[in-house]
Amino acid sequence: MKKKISYTILITMCILATVGYFRYNPTVVVNGTIPNTAEAIVRVNLRALEYNIITDIISRPFSYFNSKKSSSSSEPKKLSFLDQVEIPANLFFYTDYQSIKGVWVSSNIKIRDKKTLIKFFEQNKIKPKLGKGFRYYESKNIVYVLLKEDLKLLFKLKKTENIERKLATILSVKDYLTNEDLILQKIIKSKGLLTFATKQDDFFEMQIDNEILTLNGVISEANNVFLPYATCFEVGEMGHVSGKLKRDAFSSLIKKDNKIAFKKLTTLSLDSLTNSWNGAFEMNFSGFKEEKDTIVTYEYDDDFNKVEKRSFKIK
User: Fold this and answer.
1) Interhelix angle 2-24/46-59, nearest 10 degrees
2) What is the pTM of this model?
């Protein structure tokens, strides 16, 4: 009997380990996802994010308990966007610096129920707009594009005109990057939560290792504004940032309007300051300082006597 129980437990553990391995180490397939005109790509590894959340819940379950009372049942139930779509293992975003400059486009997301998704938009008072052969919803800087069975998300980094024309360009793509393209090689191999790559060989990945968030990467020579630099300070308890910038490159990043506004505010010229600066910078984060303010107010009792009342505010 003991052997039977032991074998059952062993088989169950093997099945769970196998399922877990294939769930959290899925094959990354990018074929037919990103146009060959894409110049910058971001991969969001949702499986890795899910794994980190689950392991954190297991390691400290009590911190996730919510003591707040549930909302009244009489309130109408609000639809959630995430409930209307199937969460993919990986979500990709891409842009180029010409036809869709300033706009990031997602890979296709599977819709669970289109009717309920439309109700979600109606509930949030987001009105539909019609393009040539597609319907889309626009809410501030996010555009939701409804296809037959899929959904695309567009994030606008700035005010964008002729969004319908950009959508038509995005949906008319016929040539895509494949797993063999160089821009995708590092993205596919990365185990990071967030990965960024460009056709100019820039590459960054964000990872969590032993509860430490790290950002590693390489800046291409064309985009690199840094010079070699060795810090002379000890690293702070929370974080430390140091480096040395190319002065000319740093100055060119600041717009002329901002330079004029800075001079009006301070009577100082940014160009003059840049010429007097060697480009080095140091930032050391040792911790947070907690301050307590005492707030004094007065109330009156039934006999109209003034009663002092003190309260404290932490900032």
Assistant:
1) 140
2) 0.69
